[in-house]
Amino acid sequence: MVKIQFDVLGIGNAMLDVIVHADDAFLSDNDLIKGAMSLIDADTAQALYAKSGPAVECSGGSAGNTISCLASLGSKAAYVGKVYNDQLGHAFIHDVRSLGVHFETALAIDGPPTATCLVIVTPDAERTMQTFLGACIGLGPDDIVEADVAASAVTYMEGYLWDPEDAKAAFLKAADIAHKAGRDVSLSLSDPFCVDRHRDEFTDLVTNHVDILFANEDEIMSLYQVDNFDDALQIVRGQCKIAALTRGDKGSVIVHGDEIHIVDAEPVSKVLDTTGAGDAYAAGFLHGYTAGKDLPTSARIGGICAAEVISHLGARAQANLKDLAAEKLGA
Amino acid sequence: MVKIQFDVLGIGNAMLDVIVHADDAFLSDNDLIKGAMSLIDADTAQALYAKSGPAVECSGGSAGNTISCLASLGSKAAYVGKVYNDQLGHAFIHDVRSLGVHFETALAIDGPPTATCLVIVTPDAERTMQTFLGACIGLGPDDIVEADVAASAVTYMEGYLWDPEDAKAAFLKAADIAHKAGRDVSLSLSDPFCVDRHRDEFTDLVTNHVDILFANEDEIMSLYQVDNFDDALQIVRGQCKIAALTRGDKGSVIVHGDEIHIVDAEPVSKVLDTTGAGDAYAAGFLHGYTAGKDLPTSARIGGICAAEVISHLGARAQANLKDLAAEKLGA
Lengths: 331, 331
Hints:
The structure is a homodimer.
Chain A: E1 6-11, E2 15-21, H1 24-29, E3 37-39, H2 42-51, E4 56-60, H3 62-73, E5 77-80, H4 87-97, E6 102-103, E7 115-121, E8 127-132, H5 146-150, E9 152-158, H6 167-180, E10 184-188, H7 192-197, H8 199-208, E11 212-216, H9 217-223, H10 229-236, E12 242-246, E13 252-256, E14 259-263, H11 277-290, H12 295-310, H13 321-330
Parallel strand pairs in A: 1-5, 1-9, 2-7, 3-8, 5-6, 9-10, 10-11, 11-12
Antiparallel strand pairs in A: 2-4, 7-8, 12-13, 13-14
């Protein structure tokens, strides 16, 4: 068996977040669906940006956020994602590598520029995301390095990978390699609208390819088209080894065969921007899981990471998560 | 006489801030002078960036920050600065224009890329800045639009303009136009090391070209090479119409002929990043001054803006400064 080199290898749409503040009127004036991630083309992205206020840019992408949090927690992490050979692409690569994340995906040298996500944060700390996939459409099976996947305890992928055309083939290739090497495959459902776009494929994935599923309440209810959380919980049991279901300030529920663990949310003094809460939760959970912690403790670390990320602007941790988790778990 | 179109026109080195967290050991390991702005070349910038942690990018530049704060306060503002036709350049232009700032400086289409400033924030909230001037070296007298300067109540310039070769000629051209039109010329001394680099020229400027001077304690003492603040205060009296001298948490002192006003600092619950404090103070002061407020009130608005900017990461305001100032002044 190949030696474990990485605790988690993440595969996702690599992008820069362009974070702006706006009020609810801006969303309605521009027909934006609050709280959702919508896909837009280059012209729409440009037009919406021109109408937006001053921005702050930082690396984002769902799985990219998770992998960065994992590295900040001290896990050995790797990332696969496609950026263009431009200033934003180099900024993305800098940010993951500077945390010690293994990143070797070839840069795109033709086609569209590095992907951006316009993250519109409203005064209630909710975020509405408008994504221009850009260079992400170039991610495909050739970008999956068999040795890296086989050497990763968990291969983690975001549901958003179903949006660009060729990335799902990359996902399936990676899942196949991981399982042949006896590793776990993990999926985040990303967002309820993403689930809407790809429901049948996601249901099949969860049943046949996924060991550890991450979803929030809305996503898991959307997946199984039920209108209450308990029904979704009953359906997902037995579909995959572990389901970690997050419920915002109600904490999370971990389903593992007949075991169900209910874990409270970490208290937060002021929620400033909910972007990346789910990504950070997945990071904390997988950090605990790959370190051999029990499921409630893993969920608790997930909650600690999510609480850090929502207490400031931007989806990536500003605190040293390793120290933070040690302090909170020690208390 | 030309009609006033802008309360303040700012001229400065246009750049993106690349903000990273680091400890004091990082500064000493890389021979960086804590709290200072140092100029570095492209290779050094690249090497230092590669050694730095994950970054957040946002528009910066001393006068750029001031002008953005002024626009956020509701002043009519214009800005002159040189960026390259690249992703960072377009981000800079977006950020100033999105606040309603008049910006028409031609983009550089050859030469180095848009300037960046690596801002290293240490746990004590102090910032150490490493600037790659990039496209700023292309700013020159041709970029000064006579009609805009003549139509601005105050033309505001940063001392850092003395660093690139041709910008000082732009400064002097603008000062000359402003005075011929009966307007005020304002200068920020930028930082004590910048004063060291250009002391003789700055002394001459203050005496012969500047109506409103902004400086902090260290800068004004460096300018006149004295070792206490009171001596500097006595020298600067009569050198220019108004000197607004900032003293960190001790507030500010306004010198206007025989009048001296001492104004307390605004309380801040937690200082996170002192980058841009002086820039924001100048914005608040000039907002009050051009609106016909008295000097202590203008200084108070300066303090309110500085307090907002140091309470979060990044040099530009995140709150609506107009509302904030109205609330604080009303209280």
